[in-house]
Design goal:
The protein has helices at about 30-40, 50-55, 60-70, 70-90, 95-105, 120-130, 150-155, 175-185, 215-220; strands at about 15-20, 25, 90-95, 110-120, 135-140, 170-175, 190, 210. By secondary structure, the chain is of the alpha/beta class.
Length: about 220
Amino acid sequence: MTMTPEGGAIRRPRAILFDWDNTLVDSWATIHEALNFCMAAMDKPLWSVADTKKKVRLSLREAFPQHFGDRWEEARTIYLDRFQAIHLERLTPLPGREAMLHGLTAEGIYLGIVSNKTGALLRREATRLGWSELFGNIVGAGDAVMDKPAIEPVTLALTRSGIAAGDEVWFVGDTAVDMECAINSGCVPILLGGSPTAAEFSRHPPLLTFADEQTLFRRVRDL
């Protein structure tokens, strides 16, 4: 029986929900360029790459009012227009992720996406990579009544699976918002890459951490 570091048993997942950006695909450069294009248009100071990586966690409808106040919808339009113009040509899957997804599918595990990327853009990227058929549901920002870390996107992502959120559902991501969403919905929080001791995980720590996709796949296969 596989155990957590705290001594609890880990059950084989019947479903795995993945974050998208920087969990399955490398998006930081594209997000950063679109954000700074928006910042310049809105007469705001530009962000460094480090700023982008630290601050980009929530969906646009959650984050942009904090940065742009009453003009947040104007800023959202500017950002989305720029992002849409460049994202497909720069879309890059992280190494090994496609093989991992195919391997998990072959193991009979239901796969879904829960992302804070705008839903239409998210599904366009999945289609471009030829990954759409790997997922039972691809849920992005605006698809549910609330966005991650709320539980509603998780519920929506599992709708076609017949599987309820719980300890047979892993939520795999790279940020504390992903871990918070997993905990809020009763799923198992899994960190893929990154350090579980980083300050951002102090309130919502992962239950398991995998350095890479091969280690994650082997653990699932061996359960």
